# Entry
Amino acid sequence: MKVSASRLAACGFSLLLLVTGVECGGGKYHWYTMFMFGDSFVDTGNLPKTGGRSPLSRQWHWPYGTFNGGRSGNPIGRFSNYLVQSDVIGSVRSGIKHYCDPSGMTFAVGGAGVYDVPDRLPTLAQQICNFKRLIKDGTISKWHLADSVALVAISGNDYAHATNSSDMIGFIRNVTTEIAANVKRLQKLGVKKVLVNDLHPVGCTPWLSRTTNYTVCDARGNMAATFHNTYLRKSLANTRNVHILDLNTAFTKILSGKGSKLQHKLTPCCESFDPEGYCGQRGNKSERLYTVCTNPDQYFYWDSVHPTQAGWEAVMKQLQKPMLHFLTHN
Ligand SMILES: *[C@@H]1O[C@H](CO)[C@@H](O)[C@H](O)[C@H]1NC(C)=O
Ligand SMILES: *[C@@H]1O[C@H](CO)[C@@H](O)[C@H](O)[C@H]1NC(C)=O
Ligand SMILES: *[C@@H]1O[C@H](CO)[C@@H](O)[C@H](O)[C@H]1NC(C)=O
Ligand SMILES: *[C@@H]1O[C@H](CO)[C@@H](O)[C@H](O)[C@H]1NC(C)=O
# Structure
């Protein structure tokens, strides 16, 4: 199945949704249809390609999508040097009896959270509303849902915008409660199994480790992630057919030098001159306001908050075994 891009105006929000579902083939294989929800970790080009450059359109401009830092590649709307988590999760196909197409359908939008953020991006709940519309109008059939897996990636945008941290714990509880409520919504709509990302060690992102020249992770950021993950597990403890993808453990292991040979762990490949700027930013005379490395496959982080493709491959390799166990048992 190849469905062309369609414009959706659901839940009071209009967005260009790239629908690239592909049927899996082969009699002895088990087929899953994957649906992705959340933010830039699993957005494969849903944010519109606007004219100008901005933090929310940078993924459509060089050096995004260039793979090896060379000029050869074209940006593909992903927040990485090439592929992102949702692409890499599908590459677990080889050597096992189960095959899952990586693209499926993604409703995720870079920058989104469970709550409204600036720029009116669709929240997780609104993305699920878009999903529901496609079920209602028959674009997504019962057949698609029969062996469906959803991935929910909420990676901290809610916190990045929560400047008022007088009750941070209360806010974290609210965010994780919301995630769990949306997981149940997906299951009610007929999704059979749900993968939920836990929160990666946000204190280690170049965004927060820049102040120490990328030598130390920010302890507060990492503590917030730990709280988030504790509450997330509590919120989902009694929900069946849910598996938490433990990004936090995988990232931490890799960043501490175990489980990967990546040379550059905290330093990003692409760095803006201004800490408030962004990778890909240009000046008034179109001059580059950032530097970019020539060997992103040696870096864990691509820009101030996103892993490189090599980073994602290292992460998903760590998570593959428990994930497959979850998908293949009952
Ligand atoms: C933060 O919260 C306090 C009280 O809870 C409020 O007075 C203040 O206006 C808030 N600041 C922002 C920026 O929202
Ligand atoms: C958490 O959610 C409740 C219910 O919506 C709300 O009353 C409360 O203010 C929220 N707390 C924080 C810290 O966001
Ligand atoms: C970071 O590195 C720059 C250039 O090497 C140096 O000027 C600066 O003092 C360093 N900052 C810290 C916090 O180590
Ligand atoms: C670009 O031009 C604006 C307005 O003239 C100015 O405020 C800004 O500092 C300039 N930016 C750079 C990077 O030169």
Q: What stands out?
A: The radius of gyration is 19 Å.
